[in-house]
Amino acid sequence: MKKELRPFHDHVTCEVCGRTILKGERTEAYLAPGGQRNTVCELCSVRAEHGGWIRESAHGQAPARGPRSQERRPIFARLRRRPPESLNGTSAQDRQDVPDTEGAEAEPAPSNGENAPPQRERERERPQNPRHVRAVPTTAEVKLERALALFNESAHQRTVAGLVRSLGEPWITAVPDADAPSAVTVLVAWELSWYRYRVDLGDADDPVALQAKGDELADIEESLRDWNAGLDAEGRLVMGVASE
Question: Domain map of the chain by residue range?
Answer without folding.
Answer: 4-60, 140-239
